[in-house]
TrEMBL record:
Start and end residues of each TGS domain: 319-388
Matching SUPFAM superfamilies: P-loop containing nucleoside triphosphate hydrolases, TGS-like
Keyword Nucleotide-binding: yes
Organism: Candidatus Nitrosotenuis uzonensis
Protein name: GTPase
NCBIfam families assigned: PRK09602.1
GO-annotated cellular components: cytoplasm
Pfam families xref list: MMR_HSR1 (PF01926), TGS (PF02824), YGR210-like_G4 (PF08438)
Entry annotated with the keyword Thylakoid: no
Lineage: Archaea, Nitrososphaerota, Candidatus Nitrosotenuis
Domain OBG-type G: 1-264
Domain of life: Archaea
InterPro entries: Beta-grasp_dom_sf (IPR012675), G_OBG (IPR031167), GTP-bd (IPR006073), P-loop_NTPase (IPR027417), TGS (IPR004095), TGS-like (IPR012676), YGR210-like_G4 (IPR013646)
Keywords: Nucleotide-binding
Any GO MF annotation of the entry: ATP hydrolysis activity
Length: 393
């Protein structure tokens, strides 16, 4: 599972990344601070299965029943209009983000940066322009892949060495595109009945737009919300928007590390401990006013939305001992796995080890104690024991 951060230059992508992964990376109020991608681990927040069994366990990723499940996060270089023609750092950012299953588009909602990412007074740039151009650059990157190969693809179709769906799926295989998806997009775009040789440039664009939405869905993180004078602007943005203040989250994470506050990422408040200096307390109170305005810093909400709503993943807990809820080393609820909705017991086995899936006999739904088959569809929060003729590894 990988989430990519995408956006114009200087909007706060690296600040988001640094806060979410608790890793120090260069952050600066000018465009193109980031050139090479930053890759790190962050967590999505969910309810731990220990709550169901009313047990207390020691797990660094479970805090009082709040379970943090690891996901990979990638922060890439920013982009400017014309990136697909090589402007700014060109398309490099998209090549770096190609592994991501979902993208969080970080927008400077306060309008403190112009279209090139240069600092300007708050409210003087329209963030809606950024939402539009960034998505359009992304679509044009998809289009270039097809444009480059279009004549060759037409020849393959004429010579009957490939069908349209096969040919397109092959060109996008690096992005995980399968033939059935190409067929779906052909139907949705209304191009299924049009001969490929007659497709116009705008036909290709409408096709790749739908394909892009399906393969790389985007959710919007309206960042720098702390500086935004009129948040009603987000209502004009199509699609899901999460209000964010990456800078506030970064400060809170640092304060937790320094033992100054009690705070779990995603909380709407925090508790200051006695050892904070008056200056630290003042900085934290400023963050409190931001939380008063936008409820949470939005960082955890954006990550959670990307995984659980946009991608519709579920969390499943594999165990080896269904009575003790442990793995073979006696660790209680050691592992939480993120799986796409519709995953089966055998799919879970395959994420643990290919052999476990190969020798699959049956599984046990530990919450209900019922025996389930390989094709049983798993639910969010399931605790599963797999019985297989082959052990892992
Ligand atoms: N007030 C405020 N400032 C922020 C926030 N997030 C980031 N910033 C500031 O915005 C500037 C740019 O932050 P970066 O994280 O470097 O932005 P970026 O999108 O990674 O920039 P490039 O790598 O250059 O594309 C820095 O001065 C940050 O401190 C926020 O939520 N609120
Ligand atoms: Mg950056």
């Amino acid at each position: 599972m990988q989430i990519g951060l995408l956006g114009k230059a200087n909007v706060g992508k690296s600040t988001f990344f640094s806060a979410a992964t608790e890793t120090a990376v260069p952050i600066g109020n000018y465009p193109f601070t980031t050139i090479e991608p930053n890759v790190g681990v962050t967590y999505v927040r969910t309810k731990c299965a220990c709550k169901h069994f009313t047990i207390v366990h020691q797990n660094p990723h479970c805090m009082n029943g709040i379970r943090l499940v690891p996901v990979k996060l990638i922060d890439v270089a920013g982009l400017v209009p014309g990136a697909h023609e090589g402007k700014g750092l060109g398309n490099k950012f998209l090549d770096d983000a190609r592994q991501a299953e979902v993208l969080i588009h970080v927008v400077d909602i306060a309008g403190t940066t112009d279209i090139q990412g240069q600092p300007v007074p708050a409210g003087t740039h329209d963030p809606l322009e950024d939402v539009e151009f960034v998505e359009s650059e992304f679509d044009l990157w998809f289009k270039q892949i097809l444009d480059r190969e279009w004549q060759k693809l037409l020849r393959e179709i004429t010579q009957k060495t490939a069908t349209l769906t096969e040919g397109i799926a092959r060109r996008f295989s690096g992005l995980g595109v399968k033939e059935f998806l190409v067929s779906e997009v052909l139907k949705e775009s209304g191009l299924v009945t049009k001969k490929p040789a007659e497709w116009s440039d705008s036909d290709i664009l409408s096709f790749v737009r739908i394909l892009r939405k399906k393969t790389k869905p985007i959710l919007i993180a309206a960042n720098k919300a702390d500086l935004c004078k009129d948040l009603s602007i987000v209502e004009k943005i199509k699609g899901h928007v999460v209000l964010c203040s990456a800078e506030s989250e970064l400060l809170l994470r640092k304060a937790v590390k320094a033992n100054l506050i009690k705070y779990v990422p995603g909380d709407s408040s925090f508790e200051v401990q006695g050892n904070a200096t008056p200056q630290q307390k003042q900085a934290l109170e400023l963050v409190r006013t931001v939380l008063g305005k936008i409820k949470t810093t939005g960082i955890q909400q954006a990550l959670n939305h990307a995984v659980f709503e946009t991608l519709k993943f579920i969390t499943v807990y594999p165990v080896e001992d269904e009575a003790k809820l442990t793995n073979k080393d006696g660790v209680v609820l050691p592992d939480a796995r993120l799986l796409p909705l519709g995953s089966t017991a055998r799919d879970l086995a395959a994420t643990i080890h290919a052999d476990l899936a190969k020798g699959f006999l049956h599984a046990v739904d530990v919450k209900t104690k019922q025996r389930i088959g390989a094709d049983h569809i798993l639910k969010d929060g399931d605790v599963i024991k797999i019985v297989s003729t082959m052990s892992r590894g």
